[in-house]
Amino acid sequence: MSANTIVPTGLDKLAEIWVYLSATPLFGLTLTLVAYVIADAVYQRTNKFPLANPVLISVALIVTVLSASGTSYQTYFQGAQFVHFLLGTATVALAVPLARLWNELASRALPLLTGMFVGATVSVLVALGVAKLFAAPPTMMASLLPKSVTAPIAMGIAEQIGGSPTLAAVFAISTGIFGALIATPLLNALGIRDWSQRGFAVGVAAHGIGTARAYSVDPRAGAYASLGMGLHALLGAMLLPWVARWFL
Amino acid sequence: MIKGLAVLLVFQSLGELASRLLQGAMPGPVLGLILLLMFLVARKNISTSIATAADGLLAHLSIFFIPAAVGVMLYASTLAETGAAWVLAILLSTVAAITTTAVVLRALSKPADTPTDRNETK
Known about the structure:
The structure holds 2 protein chains of 2 kinds.
Chain A: H1 9-22, H2 25-45, H3 54-69, H4 73-93, H5 95-100, H6 102-107, H7 109-133, H8 138-144, H9 151-160, H10 165-190, H11 195-217, H12 219-247
Chain B: H1 2-21, H2 28-43, H3 48-58, H4 66-76, H5 85-108
Helix pairs in contact in B: 1-2, 1-3
């Protein structure tokens, strides 16, 4: 610190500490965890109100802090990557609730696969139909196609069929958040009462973020949601490149 | 807990290995999920350590999406000029997907498939 500084020493010291902290992984990691703790407290306080979705609130808080402090995403991600890494581990962990329900799932294979196939097809047709109506450019159409599939697969598919992986990630994550917000009121309006049907539909339509919502509400709904997400991921990776050849 | 976490990481690694062999057609974590599921179903038993680690991670599944979602939302705000087409496409197709999947599954389910949980709240 220079001796002839005009800024009061206390503030100067604080700024120096901030510059140091914001450049270490500690900042992004702490920000992510604190934002989630606040968001989850709001979610639990509101009795898991769908609009109080913890992913949505956390992201809003973090984006606000990053913009206000002028911190780049790269700097934030230095710390956040430790949380991001565990997404893969948590995905693997979804095998446990599926294994618990294995016999039940196996006996319902045909209805589940049919429901998933019809839901995924309608989803693609509606998305492409709306985009076509607005004369969306081909890159956007190709990036929209895999939006109900979990983000890493959506990015791979989009790249394969002439879309943009970045756009595909935006569309997939937006779909996940919106699905998690709308699922409860929509399924209530439809009169779908069974946890397995509710969870499965959310997993098929809104992949991981929808599954997180289902899991937080009921473990059986969560298991069925992860099944819907997993089946849709497999089907999407195999079939969507072919669909793209016909429709785009 | 640590033992269970180690098992999950081993299957995540196997998934990454399988993903390389398939030249990236499927992401490693999804393949790891499938491999662990096959392992657990074949063993017909889920050890307490694996269950503890998995349930611990899944109790807060939402947090793991935050770093990627922050990046996406920072980028999404620059997408405003591309108009409303994609927003509307996502809103309508997500509603359509939830509705059709749930209605078709309900139509094809036998009453015996939906045993205990008739007490909807959320």
